[in-house]
Amino acid sequence: SWGEAVRVNVRALKDLERTAVRFIRQHMDDRPRANVSFSGGKDSTVVLELARRAGITDAYYVDTGMEFPETQAFVKETGIEKVIRGGDFWKDIKKYGLPRKDDRWCCERLKLQPVKDWLSRQGPCVTVQGNRWYESFMRSTLPPVVENPFNPLQLNISPIRNWRALEVFLYLWWRKVPYNPLYEMGFERVGCWHCPAMLQSEAARTKELHPALAARWEDYLRTWAQKENIPQRCVDLGFWRWKELPPKMRELAAQEGIGLPKPRLKTQMATNSPLNPNLVRN
């Protein structure tokens, strides 16, 4: 059982906690104030617990306006007092186009910029964040302490950068820390309910849990596809999630008999659509 898994790993979990808390205390005074960046996900839930044990009580949450209802309820239960309102997604999408895995303008507009604006009034700070090396290739070289390149006022520290996902959950169970219920509903990651980075299975689960939200996004994608003269099948397969389709998705397109233009050179500017508007069936 998971309870048994926690019991036999208590010593290791204590070591992880001790090391992380010590790391936070080493850097929490590097700037005039310290806070926790809380997203409602499992990793930020762990660092919130660790930071509180280290003596940091301030935390903030950025409401992008596109969060799952379960996440919003969980944030309230967690007692996060500072909620930063993000931008207007439905307004921004008209200007920037669809959010993509290779063009995540939404992260900057809905999360990074609102935090930058807030900190411009608050002043320099140390921010404890839940980034982990094992989350993605991009984060595998994450330094433990780094000045935020988008916002130099913010010094980001990552106390669980070397934790595995299993260790994250074992720690939450060991310390009996409540976590986002979406993880028990079939979600691997927690973010915006229409995020291009979510799995297709998670998109399907979203449709089951929140049909009205899913329907609004599906309607938007359908209208977009019609305007761009793109077959609905491409939307159904999730091709909209990239400006430039990766090899695995190009292989899927070939299996489906969908003709695609050749991959663009990296030096070329990508268009708003990854697909040839003159797509034809083979």
From TrEMBL:
Pfam families, sorted: PAPS_reduct
One GO MF term attached to the UniProt entry: catalytic activity
Ranges of residues in domain Phosphoadenosine phosphosulphate reductase: 34-197
Designated name of the protein: Phosphoadenosine phosphosulfate reductase
Species assigned in the record: Methanofollis liminatans
